[in-house]
Amino acid sequence: MKTPILQSTNGNVLICALCTIIIVSLVGANVLVNCARHYNITGKQLKAWKEAMYAAEAGGDAGFDEIRNRLVPGSSNYNTNAWSGDSWSGSGPWTKTFPPFGVANSLSTTVTIDKLTDNTGTIPSSTPFYRIRAVGTAKLFGLPHRVGLSDQFFAGGPNFVANSSTRGVGDTLLRKIDINFDHFKSTYGDGDGNNVGVGAALLGPPQVSRRIELVAVPKYYVFGGAMRLTTGFFGPGSAGIIDSYSSTHPNDPTPPTTGGGGSIPANTSSYWGPNPANTTYLADAHDGDVSVGSPTFTEGGPIWGDVTTNGGNVTHSPPYQISGTIDNNVPFTVPPLQVDSGFSGVAATSPSTTPTITAGSSATTIVVYSSDINNGTTVTIKNGQTDTGNILAYPVKYPTVKILVNGNIKGSIKLEAGVTAQIWFTGNIDVKANDLNNLNVDEGKTPSLPTDDPNPSRAGHLQFYGVSPAAGTTQKIDIAPPGNVFATFYAPSADMTVTGNPDIFSSIVARSFSGNGGGGGNTGFHYDKWLNNLNLGIVTDYQIASYVEDVR
Q: Do 173 and 301 belong to one domain?
């Protein structure tokens, strides 16, 4: 009997297995290719989405820098004429498209700046608020049908139109990818609803755009410390002192006298100094802060407050006597001060022909002097309103007088009670302390005065503003004995020197300060903490008050 020979089937099984592997491999490769493609698409979209924001923020920064560069430091000076230059177009709003940048010039930004409309009249037109709108765009290179995960557009056609319900679906809508037209312009125009409609077709590849909006507001200077000096501090002599007080404190048993420029009362320590006899004032005595924008710092007498320098080596070790904190790494600058534009168009007179300035019922009286206030000349500033039983009869009980002195101040200025004076000068000040005779009184120490004065500080009622001279020229403020001074000084280009033993109740911004009285003097400098609330009306910079992304 023959045994049958079994035929081998191994070849068929191998072929089937090989076919299965091939099919699975093809499926896997197809899945891998699709995943890689969609991953690359998503990665490129995410990259473009982020880069569009970088471009928008770059445009916002450029617009903000443009606003800051056009500021002329002063109380109400702002140069808007220069907008016509530097490739900005328009007369407000102003627009500028910056050249492409980034890898392969794939990024671009367009900036529009316009003034904030104020219907209340509280924002001066000369120092306005500004809105900065920046559009950042990133290109998406590749064929349009490979850009988005969804190409399902509305039935009417592939173009964006002025209808938010017809702007596409899925990824195209979610990521704001513009294939043929800018969807934002087609729907919202310039963002305020103007010029809505389908614009010209995109000339290049698809793109992603993001938009931000900033609001820039003026930054007004206030006296935040005893002294802010840009080049150097040479403090009072060893017998001098820098400290602080508050003009809003209740009346002390023995109020200071008010005449002749003001004299310190017999019980001095009840008001001033680091260790007042009346402990009610102790908390206000240690804020005599000094800031120097250079390494140059010579202390002299003790400083009851904080000290900052830019590169100095001040420490708490002797010979320094500083009660507060010390930081030797605080750089800052103070821009030059220009003449307040409020003096424009005011006819000039001579101090000798107009020695008395009487403030009436209007809020501000403006006077321009054509020449120096010389030795032997006294300019008297008075409140012309009726004062009956300490109740002033006119609606404006504490008017302001603004004076521009086109020259030097060498004579006397007498400021009567119930009025505030802002004195601008283009030259120098060289006076005795009692030549600056401020008859106002800190209201916290004299409750009999009217209570509606917005400025309770005696020093805050007499304000000096040093208009910066031409580059390379330094102003001088020299104060000699006898007497004391109750006044503030904002003179960023002036070297201020106090000789002898006057006490200065003040806050200053200057180029430098020297109070050593020629070496070993006992000048005292007392900072009224309330002056931190005194808005000088000087716009020193702009700052961003609002930042939002327009996500439409």
A: no
Q: Do both 509 and 453 map to the same domain?
A: yes
- pTM score, two decimals? 0.72
Contact 337, 73 (CB under 8 A): yes
Q: In terms of domains, do 210 and 246 share one?
A: no
Distance, CA of 475 to CA of 399 (rounded, Å): 29
296, 181: one domain: no
What SS3 class is residue 545? strand
Structural domain including 111 reads: 28-118+126-220+544-550
8 Å CB contact between 212 and 57: yes
Integer Cα distance of 313 and 292 in angstroms: 12
Contact (CB, 8 A) for 332 and 293:
yes
Is pLDDT at 388 greater than 60 in this prediction?
no
* Residue at 284 is within a domain: yes
Q: Report pLDDT for 552.
A: 78
Q: For residue 114, give the amino acid letter.
A: D
Asked if residue 211 and residue 228 are part of one domain, the reply reads no
Residues 150 and 283 reside in one and the same domain: no
d(CA 386, CA 383): 8
Report d(CA 212, CA 210) in Å as an integer.
7
Q: Tally the C-alpha atoms within 13 A of residue 184's C-alpha that lie toward its C-beta.
A: 19
206: preceding bond cis by omega (within 30 degrees) = no
Task: Could you list the beta-strand ranges (E) of 467-507.
Answer: 475-480, 485-486, 488-498, 503-506
Kindly tell me if the per-residue pLDDT of 87 is higher than 90. Answer: no
Q: In terms of domains, do 426 and 460 share one?
A: yes
Instruction: Return the SS3 of 442.
Output: coil
